Amino acid sequence: QVQLVESGGGLVQAGGSLRLSCAASVRTFSMYAMAWFRQAPGKERELVAAISWSGVSTFYVDSAKGRFTISRDNAKNTVYLQMNSLKPEDTAVYYCAAAFKSFGKFYNDYAKWYDYWGQGTQVTVSS
Fold first, then answer.
1. End-to-end CA distance of the chain
2. Backbone φ and ψ of 20, nearest 5°
3. Would you state the pLDDT for residue 71?
């Protein structure tokens, strides 16, 4: 069983930054494709960013491009999401997700494609 624990959420003013972390309790972290999703009240959970097993390849939703950066440290079993120039519309609960996929595509915007989820961390951006 893989446990994912997110941290780093909080309240920030528009234009500010936050860095989310997701620590995974698994020996084979480098075999998991990792992603960050978010869910705002009344909205569906959406894929924000994803990163391949080695960290070489990344994906961002259009609204995150140029502002968010996903990265991972396989030695620390941790994936990060650096969020800059935050906007009120970024307010949501952010979830870390892991997919045990050994080849092929490293991300999917279909939540059930992922095998494990964290408990979520709240990000609130005030205007």
1. 40
2. -90, 145
3. 98
